Automatic annotation (TrEMBL):
<keyword id="KW-0813">Transport</keyword>
<feature type="domain" description="Potassium channel inwardly rectifying transmembrane">
    <location>
        <begin position="37"/>
        <end position="174"/>
    </location>
</feature>
<dbReference type="GO" id="GO:0015272">
    <property type="term" value="F:ATP-activated inward rectifier potassium channel activity"/>
</dbReference>
<dbReference type="Pfam" id="PF17655">
    <property type="entry name" value="IRK_C"/>
</dbReference>
<feature type="domain" description="Inward rectifier potassium channel C-terminal">
    <location>
        <begin position="182"/>
        <end position="352"/>
    </location>
</feature>
<keyword id="KW-0597">Phosphoprotein</keyword>
<dbReference type="InterPro" id="IPR041647">
    <property type="entry name" value="IRK_C"/>
</dbReference>
<keyword id="KW-0812">Transmembrane</keyword>
<feature type="region of interest" description="Disordered">
    <location>
        <begin position="402"/>
        <end position="421"/>
    </location>
</feature>
<dbReference type="InterPro" id="IPR013518">
    <property type="entry name" value="K_chnl_inward-rec_Kir_cyto"/>
</dbReference>
<dbReference type="GO" id="GO:0034702">
    <property type="term" value="C:monoatomic ion channel complex"/>
</dbReference>
<feature type="compositionally biased region" description="Low complexity">
    <location>
        <begin position="378"/>
        <end position="397"/>
    </location>
</feature>
<dbReference type="GO" id="GO:0005886">
    <property type="term" value="C:plasma membrane"/>
</dbReference>
<keyword id="KW-0630">Potassium</keyword>
<keyword id="KW-0407">Ion channel</keyword>
<keyword id="KW-1133">Transmembrane helix</keyword>
<dbReference type="InterPro" id="IPR040445">
    <property type="entry name" value="Kir_TM"/>
</dbReference>
């Protein structure tokens, strides 16, 4: 019996057929890497092995403002209680040195009236620093030391109050609170706009109070290697936007679409749709301006990785005019619609303009077909309405009151027929 190898030639076997079939280019899966900027704007960066920790104590005010609320409240409480205890000890020492703690001594010769123990000295310290003044304890003119301690405690108390109130005000009026109402679209899109391939995002402000002098900046962050072999893990490349070229700032009254034209100077110039999905780049968007109500500069940030960039999509319009007023529908803020877009890179579009022309022709044909479908649907609906109205008229004519016939006696004994409707 002949072997199977001699019956079926090797070139017609499965391995031979598979080797002769054309293969598509295989791209490696993108390695999961950490985001540099999270979607909520927080920086995904950890500082380690900082040896000069004393630099944070040189800027105590900024350190207190940057602390979390629970740590700030603990520090505030500890500071006030420590100052009260410190000056309570001072008042107790003044009373002890003057002999006011002796119960046999008259009250008229004491430095502070009714300070007979450390507890009463502590209560008097609170009254002096908080300026409560219940009236039971008061300073007298008997000793100069008590007057000096009173002046010193007032000065220290004013400094502590100013620092603590300033920290609380800065923590409650931080610029990142205003940035919570500055929103970005969930996805970025790449489509043809004005015969150019563009990278677009949508930004908006939920408040009626405006951001004065708003500016939007784009940066591409990715890992690069220089010709000398130096590896740069976080290489930041500035991206020029169309709005920055036209004017210095944005008038962020209604949601705007920030557009970046992918030209020769763009880091996205050599990326096609498939290569973009396999790349490890991250596009960072920074929106900053001055808050109209407080005058504080605020900044909102977000980022888009390759999975969050939709190729061949366009944002749907959300601003309409209703009764003479422009209305913004934020339920459609991040909605996109598919459009005909070349899947090749911007470099290939510049080298082969026919690709873009064919795409524009296809989009125009699809637009005309959609208009024809809409017109045909409108005609069908109008014909249906006309047919239904004619049928309704016929039905109404059938529902008219029938003619009623009755006989009345006439002269000559005959009967005449009268019809009444």
């Amino acid at each position: 019996m002949l072997a199977r190898k001699s019956i079926i030639p090797e070139e017609f076997g499965l391995p031979g057929l598979a080797s002769r079939m054309p293969r598509k280019p295989v791209f490696r899966d993108r390695v999961n890497k950490a985001r540099f900027i999270a979607k909520n704007g927080s920086c995904n960066l950890a500082h380690k092995n900082i040896r000069e920790q004393g630099r944070f104590l040189q800027d105590v005010f900024t350190t207190l403002v940057d602390l979390r609320w629970r740590f700030s409240l603990v520090i505030f409480t500890t500071t006030f209680v420590s100052s009260w205890l410190l000056f309570a000890m001072s008042w107790w020492l003044v009373a002890f040195a003057h002999g006011d703690l002796d119960p046999q001594r008259q009250n008229g010769t004491s430095c502070v009236t009714d300070v007979k123990s450390f507890t009463s000295a502590f209560l008097f310290s609170i009254e002096v620093q908080v300026t409560i003044g219940f009236g039971g304890r008061m300073i007298t003119e008997q000793c100069l030391t008590a007057i000096t301690v009173l002046i010193l405690q007032n000065i220290v108390g004013l400094i502590i109050n100013a620092v603590m109130l300033g920290c609380i005000f800065m923590k409650t009026a931080q610029s990142n609170r205003r940035a919570e109402t500055l929103i970005f679209s969930r996805h970025a899109v790449i489509a043809v706009r004005n015969n150019r391939l563009c990278f677009m995002i949508r930004i908006g402000d939920l408040r009626k109070s405006m951001i004065i002098g708003a500016t939007a900046r784009l940066q591409v962050v990715r890992k690069t290697t220089t010709p000398e072999g130096e590896v740069i893990p976080i290489h930041q490349i500035d991206v020029q936007t169309e709005s920055a070229v036209a004017s210095n700032s944005l008038f962020l009254l209604a949601p705007l679409i920030i557009c970046h034209i992918i030209d020769k100077t763009s880091p996205l110039y050599d990326l096609s749709a498939m290569e973009l999905q396999c790349s490890d780049l991250e596009v960072i968007v920074i929106l900053e301006g001055v808050v109209e109500t407080t005058g504080i500069t605020t900044q909102a940030r977000t980022s888009y990785i390759s999975e969050e960039i939709q190729w061949g999509h366009r944002f749907v319009p959300i601003v309409t005019e209703e009764d003479g007023v422009y209305s913004v529908d934020y339920s459609k803020f991040g909605n996109t619609v598919k459009v005909n877009t070349p899947r090749c890179s911007a470099r290939e579009l510049d080298e082969k303009p026919s690709i873009l022309i064919q795409t524009l022709q296809k989009s125009e044909l699809s637009h005309q077909n959609s208009l024809r479908k809409r017109n045909s649907m409108r005609r069908n609906n109008s014909m249906r309405k006309v047919g239904s109205s004619s049928n309704l008229r016929r039905n109404n004519s059938g529902l008219l009151s029938p003619k009623i016939q009755f006989f009345t006696p006439s002269e000559g004994g005959g009967q005449s027929l009268n019809a009444v409707t």
